[in-house]
């Protein structure tokens, strides 16, 4: 093989799971130089209350739609909140600001919060809210098997990424392996 063919070859992974490597000393020093505005807001006053306000607003929204019964509105509230929570905390990586030289580009918001420490008060709260919402929505759906299945799938989809063993673990069936994206940019 010549050098040209080696550049065009892409690394293939047979696994859907990818463990994000630890940061280099350079990234760690970049992360400690400036506070992370993307993740520090979750510890501010009122940040916890916004989750309750969102849940109540979603419940009111789904309750005022004609033809939607109470059990369906609780399930929709649960699913929409869980989807939004997953999208915000676990899917999107990096930060929207360009002042830290890409120090957080490979971390999602959950991993950025509290400098990656597990079981801080904020993370405990954000772990408890989906569980409580699941219990309430399951109760108001009268433990119907269909609604229960939908609610438990939504709960598992948002709780599993929050557990310590899934820290820096990526499931990449939609966006490919990170090395492939890097090679595509070159």
What does this structure look like?
Mean pLDDT is 80; it is low at 1-11 and 181-186. By secondary structure, the chain is mostly helical. The chain is elongated. It is built from nine helices and two strands. Helices cover 57% and strands 3% of the residues. The protein has helices at 3-8, 25-33, 37-40, 47-64, 70-91, 109-112, 121-140, 145-159, 178-185; strands at residues 17-19, 169-171. It has a two-stranded antiparallel ribbon with strand order 1-2.
Which descriptors would you attach to this protein?
186 residues, two-stranded antiparallel sheet, 3% strand, elongated, disordered C terminus
Write the layout of secondary structure elements.
Blueprint: H1 3-8, E1 17-19, H2 25-33, H3 37-40, H4 47-64, H5 70-91, H6 109-112, H7 121-140, H8 145-159, E2 169-171, H9 178-185
Antiparallel strand pairs: 1-2
Helix pairs in contact: 4-5, 4-7, 5-7, 5-8, 7-8
Sheet with the most strands: spatial strand order: 1-2
Q: Give the helices and strands as they follow along the chain.
A: HEHHHHHHHEH
Q: Which structural class matches the secondary elements? A: mainly alpha
Form type:
elongated
Query: Quick check: average pLDDT?
Result: 80
Residue windows where pLDDT falls under 50 for at least 5 positions: 1-11, 181-186
N-to-C CA distance: 20 Å
């Amino acid at each position: 093989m010549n050098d040209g063919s080696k550049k065009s070859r892409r690394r293939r992974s047979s696994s859907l799971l990818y463990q994000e490597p630890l940061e280099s000393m350079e990234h760690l020093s970049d992360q400690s130089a400036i506070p992370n505005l993307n993740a520090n807001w979750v510890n501010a006053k009122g940040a916890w209350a916004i989750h309750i306000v969102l849940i109540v607003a979603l419940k009111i929204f789904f309750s005022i739609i004609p033809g939607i019964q109470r059990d369906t509105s609780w399930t929709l509230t649960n699913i929409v909140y869980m989807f939004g929570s997953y999208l915000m905390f676990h899917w999107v990586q990096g930060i929207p600001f360009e002042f830290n030289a890409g120090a957080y580009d490979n971390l999602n918001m959950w991993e950025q919060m509290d400098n990656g420490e597990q079981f801080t008060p904020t993370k405990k709260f954000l772990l408890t809210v989906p569980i409580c919402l699941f219990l309430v929505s399951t109760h108001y759906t009268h433990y119907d098997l269909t609604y229960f299945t939908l609610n438990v799938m939504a709960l598992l989809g948002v709780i599993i990424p929050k557990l310590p063993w899934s820290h820096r673990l990526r499931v990449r069936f939609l966006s490919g392996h990170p090395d492939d994206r890097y090679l595509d940019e070159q």
